[in-house]
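Render this sequence as a predicted structure.
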Amino acid sequence: MTSLSPYEWFKSSYSGGSGTECVECALGGSSTLVRDSKQESGPVVAVQHQTWDFFVDALRRGELDE
């Protein structure tokens, strides 16, 4: 399936390899966009770039592991 999105989507490095946990991200004008790769035309969550950076940094530091 080819995406008609104007954004360049890439798979998150935190997505699972089994194909059931696929998250894609794209850089929008002022936001980082997140979607389920299995639903390219489905909902998209937009997060401000700075907030996304804080989130990713917290993941890298292991602060969000349970």
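Summary. Residues 12 and 53 are 13 Å apart (CA to CA). The chain has a mean pLDDT of 83.
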